[in-house]
Write a structure and sequence with these properties.
The protein is mainly β. Helix content is 5%, strand content 39%.
């Protein structure tokens, strides 16, 4: 079992003094059994720009992989080794795995994809490898990402492949985006 994520949230008291208003284990964690028990610790989201700074905790409303229009999602994803489940992922199960986080439509699984969990969101994503290692799989290439590496993923078709024997934890910030020139196959 992995260590839970501690979330510290600041705010202001009635006199306007900066204070900690929350210091506890992050309350919203989703598990995707079809992905070997992958966990998504939902840390914060926004749904407007500019951001409403004093808004109440929105993380329980995080229902999809991608953010709402004009919003962003901040989460930590713990990827288990895929050797335990990857061989059983059909197109339907891959869509169901994304459907478990409210985003079946992002699945790009076809008979000729490089990885069954290929997907695309219309977002700019910042990914920071916190521990372990994971392969970023693209249409025609892949890159091994290790602890401390940062990925800026810009609306591309991709998958995350943990081929190691240990979990990999990645912090992700997904920011709602729009294509100037949508690539073939991208949702508009």
């Amino acid at each position: 079992m992995h260590k839970p994520v501690r979330r510290i949230v600041t705010g202001h008291d009635t006199a306007g003094k900066a204070i900690v208003i929350e210091d506890r284990t992050a309350p919203t964690v989703r598990t995707v059994e079809l992905r070997g028990g992958l966990t998504m610790t939902e840390l914060w989201m926004t749904d407007t720009m500019p951001v409403k700074i004093d808004a109440p905790d929105p993380s329980p409303q995080m229902k999809t992989l991608q953010p709402v229009a004009n919003g962003n999602n901040f989460r930590i994803v713990r990827f288990p080794p895929e050797r335990t489940f990857i061989h059983t992922l059909t197109a339907d199960k891959a869509r169901a795995a994304f459907g478990a986080v409210g985003s079946a439509e992002v699945s790009q699984h076809t008979d000729n994809v490089r990885h069954p969990l290929m997907h695309r969101t219309q977002t700019v994503d910042y990914g920071i490898i916190l521990e372990g290692e994971i392969w970023l799989v693209l249409d025609d290439s892949e890159v091994l990402c290790k602890q401390g590496d940062v990925i800026i993923q810009r609306g591309t078709n991709h998958a995350w492949s943990n081929r190691s024997d240990a979990d990999c934890a990645v912090a992700f910030i997904l920011i709602d985006g729009v294509y100037d020139n949508p690539p073939p196959g991208a949702a508009h």
